[in-house]
Amino acid sequence: MRKYLKYIGVVCFIVIISSWLHLNRDRGNQRENFEYFFKTFEEKYALFEVKDIDWNALHSQYETRVHDSMTDDELFKIFQEVLYQLNDKHSYIYRFNEIYFSGYNLPVLNYFDLLKFDFRVPTDDFSLKLIKRKYLKNDFEKRLLIYSFLPPMGIRSIFTTGWLSDSIAYIHMTEMSNKTDKVYEAIDDFFEKYDAAHSFVIDIRDNIGGYSLPVKALAERFTNNKQIYAISRLRAPESINTYQKPENWIIEPTSQKKYSDRQVALLTNKNTQSAAELLTLMMKTLPNVTLIGDTTTGIFSDTHIGKLPNGWEYRMSIRKTCDADDLFWEDIGIAPDILIKNEKKDIDNGIDKVLDYSIQMLTNKNR
Predict the structure, then answer these.
(1) 3-class state of residue 174 by DSSP
(2) CA-CA distance, 264 to 172, in Å (whole number)?
(3) pLDDT of the residue at 331
(4) Residue from 366, 190, 339 nearest 268 by CA
(5) How far apart are CA 102 and CA 86, in angstroms?
(6) Which of the listed CATH numbers 3.40.50.300, 3.30.750.44, 3.40.50.2000, 1.10.3490.10 matches domain 2-115?
(7) In the chain, count of helices (H) and strands (E)?
(8) pLDDT at position 4, please?
């Protein structure tokens, strides 16, 4: 008991010291923080034109409300209102115990709110539990266990794999991890175990994104050709609607065994987000891949995270990223080749129409 009391005392001491340091930090003045926020977005933010935002007009609108005697709450409220107008799910403003996410139509969240916060919008059109229970034959496997202290918080496995039939292999990814070596290992193990599969279902429904480069190794198993999957432009600081030289993002054939002769169904829904949408762009370029399900979320940009002079953290979109044809899908999303939507009643009744269609399509192609 004495041991636990010692740990509790240490934790309380750390919390008190951290709070004291936070409250006594050099915060600058309110106008300085306001101008820093607007100037940084002016130089780096990439989607003003897309969002139809007149940033200079917003600055003029809010600068009259800023004065050095205003409270932190009042300044935070201004930043909240500005980000609300951007309506950009990749942007936020964060201060001690409070964060405001743009684009989610949510109030400011505190630590306790974040414990249950999930970037997925409620659609009730997908259930991994249902797939494990009904669709995967024999034993399924879970790979790459992670412990997340960022939303959504908790312990979960990123990869779920198994057989849908004697010839169709299945892999679901909950998110795109930055644990590069472990992602590579999981992908290699998947292809080694399911090497005999005639076709594959890659399921990225309810995938909240993350880091697209590690999972590129999955897409590159299905191509024989080097090809562009996206064209991306970093913001240029000179003026609000200018960009640096376009960058061609490429997938190329892996040196490992390829499966370009196998048919693939890529499953997406409204909660297929961010880096998962970049994987969708990769797979969309391949002739042996069929996109099935619902349109993706529509958030593609890379982000920049920085801090204001007062220590508040912000995040913003800093790239305009298009598909291989240089078409822009921000706030629109990528439409599937075959549009099929589950409803809550389907899932409640143990039916996944998207997966059922995919299995039937791949079975017919394998005959």
Answers:
(1) coil
(2) 13
(3) 95
(4) 339
(5) 7
(6) 3.30.750.44
(7) 12, 14
(8) 45
**Which DSSP symbol is given to 77?**
H
> Does the structural domain 128-223+258-298+333-366 have CATH classification 3.90.226.10?
yes
Please, how many CA atoms are within 13 Å of residue 172, restricted to the half-sphere of its CB?
A: 27
266 closest CA partner among 193, 340, 328: 340
For the chain, give the number of residues.
367
For the beta carbon of residue 3, count every other beta carbon within 10 angstroms.
7
Q: Decide if 188 contacts 256 (C-beta within 8 A).
A: yes
What's the CA gap between 177 and 28, in Å, rounded? 36
- Tokens in use for 66? 């800023």
Q: Read off the tokens for 242.
A: 């200018």
The predicted pLDDT at position 26 comes to 44
Predicted confidence at residue 153, as pLDDT, reads 85
For the segment 14-40, what is each residue's pLDDT rounded down to a tens digit? 445 544 444 544 456 999 999 999 999
Contact 292, 265 (CB under 8 A): yes
Distance, in Å, from the CA atom of 340 to the CA atom of 338, rounded to the nearest integer, reads: 6
Q: What pLDDT sits at residue 27? A: 55
Q: What token pair was written down for 116?
A: 């249950």
Whole-Å CA distances, 96 to 107, 113, 118, 151, 290: 16, 14, 20, 16, 45
List pLDDT tens digits, range 153-200. Answer: 888 899 999 999 999 999 999 999 999 999 999 999 999 999 999 999
User: In the prediction, which pLDDT does 5 show?
Assistant: 53
CA 283 to CA 204: how far, in whole Å? 12
Kindly give the parts of the chain with pLDDT less than 70: 1-28
User: Could you give the CA distance from residue 136 to residue 124 in angstroms, rounded to a whole number?
Assistant: 20
Q: Where are the domains of the chain?
A: 2-115, 128-223+258-298+333-366
Q: What are phi and psi of 234, to 5 degrees?
A: -80, 140
